[in-house]
Amino acid sequence: MNTITNRFVAAERALRTAAPHQLLDAVRRVLTDQYAADSVELFLADYGLTVLQPVSVLPHTLRPVSVHNSPAGRAFGAQEPYVEDPSGDLVRVHLPVTVRGDRLGVLTVTLPGGEHAEGCLDELAEIAEVLGHEVVVAERDTDLYLQARRRDRLTLAAEMQWQLLPGRSCARPEYELGAQLEPAYAIFGDNFDWSASADRLSLYVTNGMDEGMEASLLTNLAINALRNARRAGLSIEDQAALADQAVYAHYRGRCYLSVLMLDFDLATGRVRAVDAGSPQMLRLRGGGVERVPFDAQLPLGMFEETDYVVQEFDVEPGDRLVFVSDGVYDVASPGGEAYGDAALARAIQSTRLLPAAEVPRAVLRELRGHRGRSTPDDDALVVCLDWRGR
């Protein structure tokens, strides 16, 4: 093997054999030894997607950097390596740390400039990707990376909700997905879930009921009931029926849950949907935005033994689907005007050039402007799906 291959293999081996809490130490050592790095830092996106938090042991830590207007934030948003001052003797390279489309953070490396930096940029980008995979695996065995993501303390309800989520974005050749929740550090019951196989994508958008722990417990019960039914190979209408029974058996109709369930055929773009409540879906197609109506059916757990009926529609390559909870759709301005279809359509149009992973954050930012205050009264959930098809 040549020198380039040898040093990349050394970096990959160092990461794969490191203890879960020592991934940063491992990548630091190997980048210093093999790539003449002067410094190496790992930043992870916080729950609110506003800053990149340094991974380090308190109190010896760096300051967070902005997602919106920093060099590291530029690499995070564009999902491309960004080199500061490429003509300097020392350059800082910011590399996105991403796993199958899920944007975790940024690896920042300072190293000699000129041809040295240019010659190893592709390898460093691959090392950042390997690091991302190892962080995801390591989170099973250490709290270090989950703690690093916290700008503030999470409420217990929010802790339960974030642990329930699949990620905040993902990508495959057929589609890209992005989602975000507010208030990130104090969410109650809103939720999203997705799962893909070789031929299908399942997507659930949930509008929770109640507040605090009660809302989180209800959502946890419903989502795990849906997953249990899905993993048993049942159709989405049967998944809804079984989750409905599970929620009703526990709450006897006192609490219930609204959910929009969609099952995409990746080969054809045919979608089977069950609308059990209030989440809304809007579609951007050919420059125009329209709300896609469904026949409203009963929320999960409202009554005993509800039967659910599937509706079908098609998505076309180039379609963008945006899903929102009532904490977006119904939120009022200081003058009492609901956000509604018109404002949502404007927000979707104004963000049409952004990738799917960036859209939820941008829409929620516009929603804060409409609301006129930073803290919402209700959970606000936005999910964006860009459909490419096969």
From TrEMBL:
Q: Which residues form the PPM-type phosphatase domain?
A: 174-387
Native organism: Streptomyces luteogriseus
Q: Is this entry keyworded Hydrolase?
A: yes
**Which Pfam families does the record match to this protein?**
SpoIIE
This protein's superkingdom?
A: Bacteria
Q: Which UniProt keywords apply?
A: Hydrolase
Record's protein name: Serine phosphatase RsbU (Regulator of sigma subunit)
* Record GO terms (molecular function): phosphatase activity
Tell me which InterPro entries the record gives. Answer: Bact_Sigma-Reg, PPM-type-like_dom_sf, PPM-type_phosphatase-like_dom
